[in-house]
Amino acid sequence: MAGVTKNRGPRTGTDARRPLAVFDLDGTLADTAHRQRFLERSPRDWTAFFAAAPDDPPLAEGAALALEHAEECEVLYLTGRPERCRKDTLAWLAAQGLPGGTVRMRRNDDRRPARRTKLEILRALARDREVRVLVDDDEFVCDDAERAGFTVVRARWAAASEALKQAQEDEGRT
Length: 174
What we know:
It holds the Pfam family HAD_PNKP. By secondary structure, this protein is α/β, with parallel strands linked by helices. It has one domain (4-171): HAD superfamily/HAD-like (Rossmann fold, 3-Layer(aba) Sandwich). 35% of the residues lie in helices and 18% in strands. The protein is built from six helices and six strands, in the order E-E-H-H-E-H-E-H-E-H-E-H. It has a six-stranded mixed sheet. Strand 3, helix 3 and strand 4 (102-106) form a beta-alpha-beta unit. The chain is globular and about 45 Å long.
């Protein structure tokens, strides 16, 4: 699939009979508030923004929802973070006690809007598996996924960041 690499997370193997519960990371499971300052300057400091991700505190509401869905579903993490952040991302997920699962990330050079890349991935996943739910904080992603017929939980438990919203939509960075 263009713009995304498919790699395994901490869990080995999948069970194609189980539905998928798809979770975003930033603003859904990870509280990015402490690193927003890197996006509020000009030019934006993407290197520092992503380098600070291992220090994100978890968002309790999102983590509880992921654990709840893991009882019946295979969890898949769908993030706009670039592939170069994989090692830190996998370590963060494990440190938070979140369910193991596949982690889908952007190619390092992919700058398409998150609403486009995530919907493309959801549609591809739905060809072979039931996608039970998408949990995401990006309103554009949620709107497009709902229009495409997916069940969506809007992660509204973190403080919204206009800088992050603009980055997701205009710069295709997360």
